[in-house]
Specification:
The complex is a heterodimer of chains A (about 425) and B (about 325).
Chain A: E1 2-10, E2 19-26, E3 29-33, E4 44-47, E5 52-55, E6 57-59, H1 75-84, E7 87-92, H2 103-116, E8 121-124, E9 126-127, H3 140-145, E10 151-152, H4 161-173, E11 178-180, H5 185-188, E12 193-194, H6 197-202, E13 206-207, H7 210-226, E14 230-232, H8 238-249, E15 254-259, H9 286-298, E16 303-305, H10 313-316, H11 333-342, H12 348-353, H13 357-362, E17 378-388, E18 407-417, E19 420-424
Parallel strand pairs in A: 1-4, 1-5, 6-7, 7-8, 9-10, 10-11, 11-14, 12-13, 14-15, 15-16
Antiparallel strand pairs in A: 1-2, 2-3, 5-17, 17-18, 18-19
Chain B: H1 25-43, E1 56-61, H2 67-78, E2 82-87, H3 92-96, H4 99-107, E3 113-118, H5 123-130, E4 136-142, H6 148-162, E5 169-173, H7 180-191, E6 196-200, E7 216-218, H8 221-225, E8 230-233, H9 249-256, H10 260-263, E9 271-273, H11 286-289, H12 296-317
Helix pairs in contact in B: 1-6, 1-12, 2-12, 6-7, 6-12
The chains are: A alpha/beta (about 425), B alpha/beta (about 325).
């Protein structure tokens, strides 16, 4: 199997400029960029004239709801949504049902992806504690041997700082990455909207900024104490960006991502109780949104993710506080990201690095690079295509979007995984 | 804000009554004027008018209520409606059934109007978005969001005793954070161009950025009461001691309770209101509650006329009024 992609504009994540070049793929790898290697014979060709070729996106936080919640989504539906939207790698948090705290669940996920998946890579993130109950450590070493790429307690409470410290020590001892969504459950309470004028007006139980920052301050202290390599997921507050910037300046082994919807939405978008705008962490203020954008631009926030949370219709068909939180994000990850380029937040290659090279580096995954010898996970994008976001056209089983009716530019024409074309428009 | 106008029809008339926010001064005044015309009904021997004859009203109370529910029922009876009252806070069937299913099952019984109290902020909007066209929703309290008929009966009371809102200073005292009554009152007082609206509470019971609602914020009762014309006391829920919001009822009364002595800081002719049920000795001294400045019981009776007014305005908008298609 060999593939020759002609005339495309190659996007090198983190690199300086686009360059028009031919790409040669063989045996699942990129073998050359520019001119054909000696003796290369293409079995397939793609003319990518006027289109962008970039590494497949690596989504570092996407819930596929499998196993356990087939009414919301499953591996088959969501890997299809991924490849149709240029995402070739999905990292799955451990809050499946049952949670990813035992090797059988890890194997089940791998097995289902082989049987029913659409060739996207699916990497489980293991539970930090048994049953995510926050009390006993999970069998992290065994889980790692079985393919867990990192450990997290998702948004479940840890019983104490002592458990957290020991979990981080244990993970650090085996050189595993710890992923933390900083959240103080006491300060979260029954909150469902950012503490500010909107929550005050709508009478919605409020979530203060400190629900994130008080936890993050403690988490950073424990990184300093334990030396555990730690990635902070889905930050939402301006003060979190400041804290992270300082932690990085100190040389601590920390990195972070933010859900892409946080760069576009604020608590104003709740309007009159739109339950599609209910997320945890909540949509925050304009000032927070601007600070997150600045953090993405200067690299304080390393990665962008979809924080994909597909739901069945009924989960959102409730009064705001009783609805389930989260946004179905696979179908809008790439178009929202491209909007950041149109809005001049950062150049295309830099932006793409936050969705490819950076998560690959942090999570030690293949992909994310445009160079000979690298895995041939690629996506070809037509930058001139314009379309309007309609949930009815979503490939994901979850139609719960916050971007209904938005104008987007750029659509995927080909997705290539391990050198094979898995999707073409 | 077009989405907030779900409660108005194309001609700006009331279709639903979900909240004061988004309404106009003209509508509030119309409610008050209509209510005034209904007060005479209460003085008759036969206290009935046929405005809602043939109309079925369902009172759905997902949270317990005595006064709001009974005044709604009386208002419905005086308008000659057929009434179905369900106390859903104790109904085991509700637990497994989704809110929407409950609503649709009742709709299948040809209900024309729903009066709903529910613990979730936004639940009244949710119901209004999902009922069939022509079916009306009245909010009898949604979470911590709004309680618009209570606010209107309070406005009625103020107008009855004080007339001109422009010249008034009104103080709302107590648990503003959790109070749907306070939110509705603030919107109504603002729409009616009240001279000055003050909210007075310890910081733990004050929502953040409360000023954004168009009020002056006080953390000291004695400063806040100075020269006001109207004092509205809010009920302090006993649960507030648990979540570390307040140290004790005793300390609350000492700093935020309305005593005879403190009431003297207000204007000599100031009126004292309370949406009820009041905790004597916690937020209000018995002497004040039963005193000559208290209009608390009058509020309750005005509540019937105000609810009659709102229901009759909605019925006339939707052509439900007796002889209508239902």
């Amino acid at each position: 199997m060999s593939l020759h992609i002609r005339n495309g504009l190659v996007v090198d994540p983190g690199g300086a400029t686009l360059r028009e070049a031919d790409l040669y793929l063989q045996d699942g790898k990129i073998v050359a960029i520019g001119s054909a290697p000696a003796g290369f014979e293409a079995t397939q060709e793609i003319d990518a004239g006027g289109r962008w070729i970039m590494p497949g996106l690596i989504d570092c936080q996407a819930r596929l709801r499998d196993p356990g919640q087939p009414e919301k989504a499953n591996i088959e539906s969501e890997t299809l949504a991924a490849i149709r939207n240029g995402i070739t790698t999905l990292c799955v948090p451990p809050d499946t049902q049952p949670p990813i705290d035992n090797s059988a669940t890890v194997e089940l996920i791998h097995h289902r992806n082989e049987m029913f998946g659409h060739q996207a890579h699916v990497y489980p993130i293991g539970a930090l504690t048994r049953g995510l109950a926050g009390e006993q450590l999970s069998n992290m070493a065994s889980l790692r041997d079985n393919g867990c790429i990192a450990f997290s307690n998702a948004r479940h409470r840890l019983a104490s700082n002592l458990v957290q410290r020991r979990a981080m020590d244990y993970a650090a001892g085996q050189q595993s990455l710890v992923i933390i969504q900083p959240l103080d459950h006491d300060l979260l309470g029954n909150g469902c909207a950012h503490e500010g004028a909107i929550a005050t007006r709508l009478g919605l139980p409020a979530i203060p900024v400190a629900a994130e920052t008080a936890a993050l301050a403690k988490d950073i202290e424990l990184v300093e104490q334990t030396g555990a390599r730690t990635h902070f997921g889905q930050l939402s507050c301006a003060r979190s960006v400041d804290m992270l910037r300082r932690a990085k300046a100190k040389g601590l082994p920390v990195s972070a991502d933010c859900a892409i919807h946080q760069l576009f939405l604020t608590d104003h978008d709740i309007g009159e109780f739109d339950s599609n705008m209910f997320t945890i962490p909540p949509l925050r203020s304009q000032r927070d949104r601007d600070a997150l954008r600045a953090g993405v631009a200067d690299g304080t926030i390393d990665c962008l993710c979809s924080d994909h949370q597909p739901h069945e219709v009924d989960a959102k068909l409730k009064p705001f506080p009783s609805a389930e939180p989260g946004i179905s994000g696979l179908d809008t990850l790439l178009p929202l990201a491209l909007r950041l380029v149109d809005e001049d937040l950062l150049p295309l290659a830099e932006l793409i690095a936050r969705l490819t090279l950076n998560p690959a580096t942090i999570l030690s995954l293949p992909g994310g690079k445009m160079a000979p010898g690298e895995i041939a996970d690629l996506v070809i994008v037509d930058p001139e295509s314009h379309w309007i976001c309609k949930s009815e056209n979503f490939v994901s089983k979850g139609k719960n979007t916050a971007f209904e009716g938005w104008d987007f530019r750029g659509s995927v024409t080909h997705t290539i995984i391990n050198g094979e074309i898995v999707y073409r428009v | 804000m077009p989405s907030s106008n779900i409660q108005l029809d194309d001609m700006g008339r009331l279709r639903h009554f979900l909240g004061i926010e988004g309404l106009s001064q003209a509508i509030l005044t119309e409610i008050l004027d209509t209510a005034e015309s209904f007060t005479s009904v209460a003085d008759r021997t036969i206290k009935k008018v046929p405005i809602l004859r043939g109309i079925t009203v369902a009172n759905l109370f997902f949270e317990a209520s005595t006064r709001t529910r009974s005044t709604f029922e009386l208002a419905e009876q005086r308008l000659s409606a057929d009434i179905l009252s369900l106390n859903l806070s104790t109904s085991a069937t509700v637990k497994g059934e989704s809110l929407l299913d409950t609503l649709q099952n009742l709709e299948a019984m040809q209900i024309d109007m729903f009066v709903i109290r529910h613990q979730d902020s936004g639940s009244a909007h949710f119901f209004a978005q999902h009922v069939r066209p022509g079916v009306a929703v009245l909010n009898a309290g949604d979470g911590q969001h709004e309680h618009p008929t209570q606010a209107m009966l309070d406005m009625y009371t103020i107008r009855h005793y004080k007339q001109d809102f422009d010249a008034l200073r009104v103080a709302i005292v107590g648990d503003i954070l959790h109070s749907r009554v306070a939110r509705s009152q603030i919107h109504a007082l603002n729409l009616l161009n009240t001279g000055e609206i003050r909210v007075i509470a310890p910081r733990t019971l004050m929502p953040v950025e409360a000023e954004s609602l168009g009020v002056k914020v006080y953390e000291d009762l004695e400063l806040g009461l100075r020269d006001v014309d109207v004092v509205i006391m809010l009920r302090l829920q006993k649960e507030r001691m648990q979540g570390a919001l307040l140290p004790s009822e005793k300390e609350y009364f000492r700093k935020f309770g309305l005593s005879q002595e403190r009431l003297r800081l207000a204007k000599p002719d100031a009126i004292v209101m309370h949406p009820g049920p009041a905790n004597r000795g916690v937020e209000i001294e018995s002497g004040v509650m039963d005193g000559k400045q208290s209009v608390i019981l009058q509020q309750v009776s005005f509540g019937i006329s105000v609810r009659m007014a709102v229901m009759s305005m909605i019925a006339s908008q939707s052509g439900l009024q007796s002889g209508g298609e239902s």
